[in-house]
Design goal:
Among the domains are: about 15-110, Phosphorylase Kinase, domain 1; about 245-390, Transferase(Phosphotransferase) domain 1 (Transferase(Phosphotransferase), domain 1, Orthogonal Bundle), CATH 1.10.510. The chain has 11 helices and 16 strands. The chain is globular, with a radius of gyration of 21 Å. The protein has about 400 residues and is of the alpha+beta class. About 30% of the residues lie in helices and about 20% in strands. Strand 5 and strand 6 form a beta hairpin. Helix 4 (about 135-150) packs antiparallel against helix 6 and helix 6 runs antiparallel to helix 9 (about 325-335). It has helices spanning about 25-30, 75-85, 115-125, 135-150, 250-255, 265-280, 290-300, 305-310, 325-335, 350-360, 365-370, and strands at about 20-25, 40-45, 50-55, 60-65, 95-100, 105-110, 160, 170, 175-180, 185-190, 195-200, 210, 220-225, 230-240, 260, 390.
């Protein structure tokens, strides 16, 4: 596939321009959060603490308070830049405003009343007794895909998220997915993109990073040199940038080359989808034997999973309350997105098409909330065999 920057168009604006984020005063946000009281504390992320707040107009917000102004200013500015650029979409978190002072950096977002996907899968006290049901998980999968597809192609604007994981999939009052966590996001434009071949080792010994993978047979592998070292090669539009993201959710080509494409987000979406299905982190803790991704890839190369095999990759808290055919298709799609070969991964617009075609036609009760599908039949797609899964230790 040949890429040309003339066909990979960019723009500094879109037809549906977003409402500019408001500049709040520190006093306004202190009042809204009761001076960042412990009672309003929501949680802590990599570079900030979040507090529940109520603005003067009565709207509920989450106020992110940056830990160290000097250390995390770049991430703060990235969130403002993305929030000022991305057009409105129901599955993308909208930046309400911000506050800059010499000692404080604050971001203001709408409050997502049902917290994050990670919290609902692993942190909510009643998650075992009242787990996210199967229909809700399907809705989350589709909503997250729609939000990410919007970031990748909203008019002429293309945004790489670089932080897709269960913690950054937020849930609104209807338990619909809303993508947040834009501290690592990058806007792709003519000044920072390149087009060319990305090449990285296809067979590397395990190192302290815990990353190892081997070469698949096919067009993207080639012997190089007398030591028979093989390489993956992939051509795309990319940004040269240091690796950022959640451990286990960063694509192998980005890890080894510092060249990030939109397919890195697709990879992370696939990993998130596996966690959504399984209800647990996809990588085992030290000392555990069972690794979901290794085991699933092995069995997914078979024509069809048996009921016992499929049951092992579905959240046990569901107690069998799911459709087996849908579950198998969703697992296959997750592994397709998380494939180590970026040329195999679909674009997010195709992921949306697959999910709409699978679920909207099959579940009439959800059509009104998900939107009508433009596709009338479930597409056929196959899971290409993978000789060895990518493994990244926690």
């Amino acid at each position: 596939m040949v890429f040309n920057l003339r066909t990979f168009s960019f723009s500094e604006s879109v037809e549906d321009d977003p409402t500019p984020p408001k500049s709040f005063s520190l006093k306004e946000l202190r009042v809204a959060t009761d001076n960042f009281s412990h009672d309003n504390f929501l949680g802590e992320g990599g570079f900030c603490k979040a507090y529940r707040g109520c603005l003067a107009d009565g709207s509920l917000v989450a106020v992110k308070r940056v830990h160290c102004v000097d250390q995390w200013r770049e991430e703060f500015e990235a969130e403002i830049q993305v929030g000022s650029t991305v057009s409105t979409h129901p599955n993308v978190l909208c930046l309400r405003g911000f506050c800059r002072t010499k000692k404080e950096l604050l971001l203001v977002y709408p409050l997502m009343i049902n917290n994050s996907l990670s919290y609902n899968l692993r942190g909510r006290p009643d998650r075992c007794a009242q787990p996210l049901d199967w229909t809700t998980r399907k809705r989350i999968a589709l909503g997250a895909a729609r939000g990410l597809a919007h970031l990748h192609n909203q008019g002429n604007i293309k945004i790489m998220h670089r932080g897709i994981c269960a913690s950054n999939i937020l849930l609104n009052v209807h338990f619909e997915a809303v993508i947040g966590g834009f501290s690592f996001a990058m806007i792709m434009h003519e000044r920072n993109v390149e087009v060319g071949t990305i090449e990285w080792p296809a067979c590397m010994p395990s190192s302290g990073t815990g990353v190892s993978f081997s070469s698949p047979a096919g067009e993207n592998s080639a012997d190089s040199g007398s030591d028979f070292q093989s390489y993956h090669r992939y051509e795309d539009v990319y940004v040269n940038t240091p690796v950022r993201g959640t451990l286990g959710f960063v694509a192998p080509e980005y890890i080894y080359t510092d060249k990030c494409t939109l397919k890195n987000d697709v990879f992370a979406y696939g990993k998130m989808l596996l966690e959504l299905i399984w209800g647990q982190p996809i990588y085992p803790k030290h000392g555990e034997i069972f690794c979901l991704e290794d085991w699933t890839r092995k069995h997914m190369n078979e024509d069809q999973l048996g009921r016992d095999e499929l049951g092992r990759v579905i959240d046990p808290n569901l107690r069998g309350n799911y459709m087996e055919e849908e579950a198998e298709r969703l697992v296959r799609l997750a592994l397709l997105c998380a494939h180590e070969d970026p040329s195999v991964r679909p674009e997010m617009s195709e992921v949306v098409r697959i999910l709409e075609s699978q679920f909207l036609q099959r579940d009439p009760s959800t059509r009104s909330s998900w939107g009508q599908s433009d596709y009338d039949s479930t597409p056929y797609y196959s899971f290409p065999p993978s000789p060895s899964p990518l493994g990244i230790a926690p």
